[in-house]
Write a structure and sequence with these properties.
Layout (H helix, E strand, L loop, with lengths): L1 H8 L11 E5 L2 E4 H17 L7 H12 L7 H8 L16 H23 L6 H20 L14 H10 L9 H10 L11 H15 L3 H12 L9 H11 L2
Helix pairs in contact: 2-10, 3-4, 4-5, 5-6, 8-11
């Protein structure tokens, strides 16, 4: 089949003794003391208990874990159930005119090809850049086919890395963050990073997120408090969603 062949053809495998600077990638540094300063502020924010606007992410992840099964025969129903929420659908853009709605239409078009797209996205034998780019490419191809029947369709909402990162994060939140480039770059300025992340720097976004995660994960008091006010009700462990909470707090400070 054309789609299987298409997938096959595209396969690709402190200098002063103080902890003031952290240099994870290519010499582009963040000041660790500034990260820890905002970490302390974040702890105070969590202590006040006014965190209800962040709880939806953990309910979303809980629901995803209860529903997602890439081998499920009824892939459409499985996907539909995996991205539902009693609190907020904002991570996937809502229920209508959204990435969720378009993916359900793609599944109706060719569920086995979409299943293969997700397997490909989750294949860590390939680079992250390649996987995200290929996922977008396959969405482009599906949209192009569907536009032959419905010219009103003009986008699939997966051109940005935001939704591919959502799928990756929910599949393995210990490794992958949510993608929020605007908030992340605002936080990098606060941390006096030497340069912003550009939209094409997907690997750098991932690695800097992991670096921040490593730093704040050393604060046992913060992790415990975060669990009490955000995660406990949903049975979710500390993971990279906490970086998103932290980054959004910093960017709005």
């Amino acid at each position: 089949m054309f789609w299987r062949g298409l997938l096959a053809r595209q396969s690709g495998k402190t200098t002063n003794g103080k902890t003031n600077w952290f240099t994870p990638i290519e010499g582009r540094s963040m000041k660790v003391n500034l990260i820890k300063e905002y970490q302390h502020k974040f702890h105070n924010y969590l202590s006040r208990g006014d965190t209800s606007e962040q709880r939806y992410k953990y309910e979303n992840l809980q629901n995803f874990r209860q529903s997602w099964d890439i081998e499920e025969l009824d892939f459409h129903t499985m996907y539909d159930n995996s991205f539902r929420s009693k609190i907020s659908n904002r991570l996937w853009g809502g229920t209508h005119n959204s990435g969720r709605e378009m993916m359900l239409r793609f599944i109706e078009q060719d569920k086995e090809f979409v299943r293969s797209m997700y397997r490909d996205l989750l294949d860590e034998n390939k680079t992250l850049n390649l996987r995200v780019d290929r996922f977008k490419f396959h969405c482009d191809e599906l949209l192009s086919i569907m536009q032959r029947k419905d010219k009103k369709l003009d986008r699939h909402f997966h051109s940005s890395p935001q939704l591919p990162f959502l799928y990756l994060c929910f599949h393995d939140p210990s490794t992958y963050p949510l993608y929020d480039l605007q908030s992340f770059n605002k936080a990098l300025k606060l941390f006096e990073a030497r340069s912003e992340i550009q939209p094409f720097e997907i690997e750098r976004y991932q690695k800097l997120s992991k670096s921040i995660y490593t730093i704040i994960s050393k604060d046992d008091s913060l992790i415990s408090l975060h669990g009490d006010v955000l995660r406990k009700d949903f049975g979710i462990e500390w993971n990279m969603l906490g970086v998103h909470d932290f980054i959004q707090f910093c960017s709005s400070s």
